[in-house]
Amino acid sequence: MIATSGAQQPAITRPDGRTITSAQIDSTVNRLIQAAHVTGAGIALFHDGKVVYLEGYGVRDAEKNLPLTPDSVMTAASLTKSAFATVVMRLVQRGALNLDKPIEEYLGKPLGDFDPYTDLKGDPRTAKLTLRILLDHTTGFANFRGLEDDHKLHIHYDPGTHYGYSGEGINLAQFVIEKVTGKSTTELMQEELYGPLKMSRSSMIWLPRFESDFANVYDEYTVVRSAPSAVPSPTPPAPCRPRRDAQPGGAR
To answer: 179 and 98 share a domain?
Structure first.
């Protein structure tokens, strides 16, 4: 399916003063998604803080030929990290959190004393971990412990000294913030971000109202997961109906 919206939306003025028409956007996006075998894509353009163009392309369900719409719920995967970090910074701005305070001061005891962090028991470097280090991916953790040969969590270098992309670090930030606030990440994201911005089609967990318009996950040629039925894992998930809070290290 090819989206065509040129008659519906006016020409858009770009930051450099030039204009681009909806038809030009449609032509470019359709060409690119067909060349890359992309089943569906959503495009939003912003200018001066406002949405000036919004369109869905392709399909959300190839088998049923259902079009992808601007309201189609899609798995956000690691885009969730940026949204979660925004919530953390809102709490920092209000003084509820300090980016540079060692997380063990928030937790009240060594990190290795908590499940699921017993792999780190006895490692003194956990005392160096702060929210800033967790959020800027300098923890020393692998992306996920499942990628380690022994499937255990390790610190590979002194925290704060090197960059290394890590979902584990973001999930640890979630663990700390939930301990400090006494609220789930689902609650915090709704209160601090989704609610104020009226993002009614966004959530950390599956909601019944998503059922009418959600996108299946596809690779280049085939469907990967077509029904929301699984519990989220620490790896980037397919559409699902979680039974517990999703993790911002790899969530929708």
So the answer is: yes
Assigned token pair, 152 = 């255990």
How many residues would you count in the chain? 252
Show the domain range for 171.
Answer: 79-194
Give the distance from CA 13 to its chain's centroid. Answer: 30
Answer whether residue 228 shows pLDDT above 60.
Answer: no
> Which residue's structure tokens are 């890590």?
166
pLDDT-derived band at 13, boundaries 50, 70, 90? confident
Mean model confidence pLDDT for the chain: 87
Q: How far apart are CA 238 and CA 121, in angstroms?
A: 33
Task: Tell me the three state secondary structure of residue 22.
Answer: helix
Query: What band does 158 get if pLDDT is binned at 50, 70 and 90?
Result: very high
pLDDT at 154: 98
Answer yes or no: do 39 and 60 share one domain: yes
Distance between CA atoms of residues 243 and 252, nearest Å: 14
**Dihedral sign of CA atoms 214, 242, 149, 125 in order:** positive
| 41 and 54 co-located in one domain | yes
Which pLDDT band holds residue 25 (cuts at 50, 70, 90)?
very high
Residue 200, domain member (yes or no): no
**Do 109 and 190 belong together in one domain?**
yes
Averaged pLDDT, 17-42 = 93
CA dist., res. 141 & res. 37, Å (int) = 34
Q: Would residue 232 count as lying in a domain? A: no
Res. 235: pLDDT tops 70: no
User: Are 163 and 212 in the same domain?
Assistant: no
6 domain-assigned = no
Is residue 208 within 8 A of residue 42, CB to CB? The reply is no
Residues 6+ away with beta carbon under 8 Å from 83: 76, 189, 193, 248
